[in-house]
Amino acid sequence: MNGSAQLGNRTSTVLGRRLGGELLRLRDAAGKTQQQAAQVISATNSKIVKMERGWVPMRDPDIRALCEFYGPVDSKVTGRLLELAKLDRERRKAKGWWQHSPQAGALSEYIALEDAATRVRAWQQSLIPGLFQTAGYTRSLGVSEGAWEDPDLIERWVEIKQKRQERLLGANPLQMYAVIWEAALRQLVGGPETMRTQLEHLLDIAQLPNVRLQVLPFRAGGHPCMGGAFNIVSFAEAGAVDVVHMDTLGSTVWAENQTEGATYSAFFDRTARLSLAQVDSAALIDAIRKGL
């Protein structure tokens, strides 16, 4: 599924679908019908359908009333849903910092989700994960991809990537677990000096307490994640369904249901078990760096 979809003058967003899916899960767990839910907020059945499918922005009073009706739901879970609703409303009104950056493009949906997440598990087979990239590495990617010919646009793209990395720092940092194929470490993006600096940065960032970094070596052979790179985005609320983000050459794809989320989680876990331990991963990164 693409990051957003249109239905008349309604827009389905990733955050909206994320929030709607959680409300649907709570309703199903409580054994309530759409008609009963509609009566609680003095609405029609069609509004509940639109809310659960992420087609409309949600009001805080409606979320509170439904959470109370479905449970009552733990206050922390309700608070998290209210945060998601606020972020979704801001996204629809283009108030997030990423919405003021046209170069973010389709990535703006992912940045909004990343901003609300508590944990991301990333599998990369050809690139350094975006949250770990140095400015020089990102700049070299912008030049080599040829998407922008104007250097100023490339610099804006670099700024966006650097801004995202603030999620790894602060009082409530994002928990980041990345598994990188050895090929991504050996690909000379930007040349030896740029890559040497990038590998040094990887070694530094791997020391953060909220970062776990492993390398899948060439000698591991076949593995479950050979089909392509992806990010699994997780949230704080108990029982929340993970969202999976995948970039292809021509589009952005999202996997948003429980079955798909569990499948990608299993792929990631099995590939991580085939990877080097953190200390051995750091040793390999350092050896590659010294060989440049």
**Inertia-based shape:** elongated
Number of domains: 2
Strand order, largest beta sheet: 5-4-3-6-7-8
Q: Give the number of helices.
A: 12
Structural class: alpha/beta
Question: How many distinct beta strands?
Answer: 8
Residue stretches low in confidence (pLDDT < 50, at least 5 long) are: 1-10
Explain this structure.
The chain is an alpha/beta fold and 292 residues long. It folds into 2 domains: 4-95, 434 Repressor (Amino-terminal Domain) (Orthogonal Bundle), CATH 1.10.260; 106-291, Endonuclease, Chain A. 50% of the residues lie in helices and 14% in strands. It is built from 12 helices and 8 strands. It has a 6-stranded mixed beta sheet, with helices on both faces. A two-stranded antiparallel sheet has the order 1-2. α1 (14-30) packs antiparallel against α5, α2 (34-40) packs across α3 (45-52) and α7 (135-145) crosses α8 (151-164). The radius of gyration is 21 Å and the shape is elongated. The two termini are 41 Å apart.
Secondary-structure blueprint:
Elements: E1 4-7, E2 10-13, H1 14-30, H2 34-40, H3 45-52, H4 60-70, H5 75-92, H6 107-116, E3 119-124, H7 135-145, H8 151-164, E4 175-181, H9 182-186, H10 192-205, E5 211-216, E6 230-234, E7 243-247, E8 252-255, H11 258-274, H12 278-291
Parallel strand pairs: 3-4, 4-5
Antiparallel strand pairs: 1-2, 3-6, 6-7, 7-8
